[in-house]
Fold this sequence. Notes:
By secondary structure, this protein is mainly α. It has helices at 25-48, 58-84, 91-124, 126-132, 135-153, 155-158, 179-214, 243-283, 292-315, 318-331, and strands at residues 222-226, 232-236. It comes from Buteo japonicus.
Amino acid sequence: KHSHVAGAVGAAHPPRFGDPPPKSPGMLLCVSAPKEVTKRREKMLFLVSRSLRAPQNLFLVSLAAADILVATLIIPFSLANELLGYWYFEKTWCEIYLALDVLFCTSSIVHLCAISLDRYWSVSRAIEYNAKRTPRRIKCSIFIVWTIAAIISLPPLVYKGEKKAAVGGRPQCKLNEEAWYVLSSSVGSFFAPCLIMILVYLRIYLIAKRRHRSHPPGGRPRDTLATGTGRVVLAHRPPALNPWRRKTQINREKRFTFVLAVVIGVFVLCWFPFFFLYSLGALCPQRCKVPDGVFQFFFWIGYCNSSLNPVIYTVFNQDFRKAFRRLLCRRRAPTPW
């Protein structure tokens, strides 16, 4: 257990945990938005809307839980550490905090990867996979997601690496900076899930595009069947959808493609700069070192992904939007004036 320093420069007493740190609008947004809005609203949404009780939406519940834990157990302490310039809390909590940081952030990223795989299987093997998509199987998948995140988060607790001297005599709380851990955690936490997401969503897009071409807007699409004698039989499918329903289906596919682009774009924009600089610093620590301010900026941009995930998976989901409106209308009581 280490002792706390006397205080910051120009301060007579060290800051206490009970004293709130300096506040800013961005700070309050990062801490309060996911914790207050998502935690209360999303739990109630699944009670209001029956359509949201589908098994696959359990992924969103678990993802929301990971993002809420980031907002409540990680961001406040990261914020205090950033503002004070040193680790004010206990050494034991520093080790737990680092492990939880990796656990929750990795879990959030792996959840996105699991959601992409779930969507791919539901598109490519619609009948077979949807019949097997039971709540029990989804819960097993969620358990695997958290297990992967837990395995990646164990090294900070088991092996702490070489100890570095405290800056200015003040205790610091940093992850193991050895190259093997930085590279392995970066691959497991970001690069591998990111590659899987991009390939899977690209495959989904190609499947949707192929289906769109195989169903022309007018007429009756035909299937060709080659027989053993070399003859070709033309089989007519049932009449095509009427123009209005067909247009609705095309618009739905376009919106779905747009949502996929938003998910991938936000995910990569938030996390890629941090993990790229994090890995680059391990590969060439002397020549490739970036300013601390730049690194910290992208570090906090990565945290913002946890705040944006609930927005993406609710605003761009029609069932969630309907449930939000129903929830707000229920809670809006008539005023006497």
